[in-house]
Amino acid sequence: MKTVCYKKVIHVVVVAVLILFSSCFSSCHRHHNHLLGDWATVETYTDHNPVGFQLAKGGMAASINQPTVQYDQWSLRRHELVLSGKRFENNQIVAFDDTLRIVKINGNDLWVSRGTRQEHYRLIQ
Description:
By secondary structure, the protein is an alpha+beta fold. It has one helix at residues 2-35, and strands spanning 37-41, 52-55, 61-64, 69-77, 80-89, 92-106, 109-114, 117-123.
């Protein structure tokens, strides 16, 4: 009798975990598709030299008009956008991961935070 009860509990737990994983995957995948494209800071959006980053399929990334920063890859971890690349400073090349917490995505606008600082990006058309 107890074995049957434990089997039911294990079955319920496994199903619950699968449902949670599925909803997280769906949510992350949805954010993933909304993030593809070229993003520029709102301050430079209308400039001839907007500053920002490009997010492409397959986790490829590139910097836009940032001569000292070269993004190579990007990924999503829950609600965080992680940009990986190289920074050129003091005649040295330094590898880095830049973690941005996604605050809000609304159409062509993306708000992220780094610590206490919030940044607003707009999708370049």
